């Protein structure tokens, strides 16, 4: 396949509620179904948050394991757990999803103003998290919200806390983080070590403009309800699968072919067998 693009679907998130969109999956069965539909639409990676019985964001590994088990009955997609949780979760709780049996995990590389709150990621916690991810044989996706975070990410790779060349995601458009602009994306990509892979998550209305830039620049893309609930101006997406379909169409427009799950595993240096 020439220049394949890995499409990630972020299904749930920690901030979104049913007040904002009735299509948000909350229960393990709903998340599993949303994952299956996203994969059928063209996603190869599923980024996972979970909710408790009251619909509140949770780091409970039991819930993560249930969701992962249900998804794996439906698809062999690459499963990536969030270690970001919500801005209110403790550092201890944020380590717990690593025990759920996923192949990948997010690794946030710095603190950032997060709308009206602060998403705390002090350096000692970042390094502890990186060590735990490596110890468990999980593939980290380093999350970069600001230019200083990229410096931390490069340091983690240099120290061997993240295996070289690394896989990074640029999260652009959060109020308090780096703006979603072509200039900023090119600055970030230009600092990457040789061989590193990268993806872009544009937030809100920036989701598809950033996806288009990533496609043109040879990167990968993330879409989904966690980052953006609209398919078009004023039109709610009826699930992450609709956003994935739009990303697939955009990929074809720019001469890129969505990578299959098998191809995505090879690109990310993951086992072809999804079971731990």
Describe the secondary structure blueprint for this structure:
Elements: E1 4-5, E2 7-10, H1 28-41, E3 45-48, E4 50-51, E5 57-58, H2 61-72, E6 78-81, H3 91-95, E7 104-108, E8 112-114, E9 117-119, H4 123-135, E10 139-144, H5 147-159, E11 167-172, H6 182-190, E12 197-202, H7 207-217, E13 220-223, E14 230-232, E15 235-236, H8 240-253, E16 257-258, H9 261-267
Parallel strand pairs: 1-16, 2-3, 2-13, 3-6, 6-7, 7-10, 10-11, 11-12, 12-13
Antiparallel strand pairs: 4-5, 8-9, 14-15
Report on the structure:
With 276 residues, the protein is α/β, with parallel strands linked by helices. It has a single domain, classed as TIM Barrel, CATH 3.20.20.70. It is built from nine helices and 16 strands. The chain has helices at 28-41, 61-72, 91-95, 123-135, 147-159, 182-190, 207-217, 240-253, 261-267; strands at residues 4-5, 7-10, 45-48, 50-51, 57-58, 78-81, 104-108, 112-114, 117-119, 139-144, 167-172, 197-202, 220-223, 230-232, 235-236, 257-258. The strands form five sheets. It has an eight-stranded parallel barrel with strand order 2-3-6-7-10-11-12-13, surrounded by seven helices. A two-stranded parallel ribbon has the order 1-16. Helix 3 (91-95) links the parallel strand 6 and strand 7 (104-108). Helix 1 (28-41) crosses helix 2 and helix 1 packs parallel to helix 8. The longest helix has 14 residues, at 28-41. It is globular, with a radius of gyration of 17 Å. The protein starts with a strand and ends in a 9-residue tail after the last helix.
């Amino acid at each position: 396949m020439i220049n394949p693009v890995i499409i990630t679907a972020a299904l749930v998130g920690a901030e979104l509620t049913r007040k904002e969109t009735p299509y948000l999956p909350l229960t393990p069965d709903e998340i599993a179904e949303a994952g299956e539909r996203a994969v059928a639409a063209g996603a190869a990676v599923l980024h996972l948050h979970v909710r408790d019985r009251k619909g509140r964001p949770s780091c409970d590994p039991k819930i993560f394991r249930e969701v992962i088990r249900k998804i794996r009955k439906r698809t062999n997609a690459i499963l990536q757990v969030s270690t970001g949780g919500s801005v209110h979760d403790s550092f201890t709780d944020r380590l717990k999803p690593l025990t759920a049996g996923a192949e990948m995990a997010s690794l946030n590389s710095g603190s950032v103003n997060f709308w009206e709150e602060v998403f705390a990621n002090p350096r000692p916690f970042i390094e502890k998290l990186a060590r735990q991810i490596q110890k468990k044989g999980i593939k980290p996706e380093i999350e970069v919200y600001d230019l200083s975070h990229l410096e931390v990410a490069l340091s983690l790779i240099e120290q061997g806390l993240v295996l070289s060349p690394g896989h990074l995601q640029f999260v652009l458009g959060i109020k308090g983080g780096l703006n979603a602009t072509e200039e900023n994306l090119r600055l970030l990509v230009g600092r990457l070590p040789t061989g590193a892979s990268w993806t872009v998550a544009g937030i809100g209305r920036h989701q598809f403009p950033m996806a288009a830039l990533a496609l043109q620049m040879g990167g990968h893309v993330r879409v989904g309800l966690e980052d953006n609930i609209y398919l078009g101006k004023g039109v709610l997406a009826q699930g992450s699968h609709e956003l994935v379909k739009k990303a697939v169409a955009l990929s074809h427009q720019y001469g890129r072919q969505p990578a299959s799950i098998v191809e995505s595993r090879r690109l990310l240096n993951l086992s072809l067998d999804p079971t731990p």
